[in-house]
Amino acid sequence: MDRLFIALQYLLPQHALSRLTGWLAETRIGWLKDILIRMFASRFRVDMTEALEPDLAGYENFNAFFTRALLEGARPIEGDANSIVCPADGAVSQLGNIEGERIFQAKGQNFSTLELLGGDNDRAELFRNGGFATIYLSPRDYHRVHMPIDGELTAQTYIPGQLFSVNQVTAENVPRLFARNERLVCYFDTEAGPMAMILVGAMVVAGIETVWDGQVSPPPRQSNTIDYKQLPKGIRLSKGDEMGRFKLGSTVILLFPEGQVSWLEDYQAGTPTRLGQILAQRKA
Question: What is the pTM (predicted TM-score) of this model?
Answer without folding.
Answer: 0.90
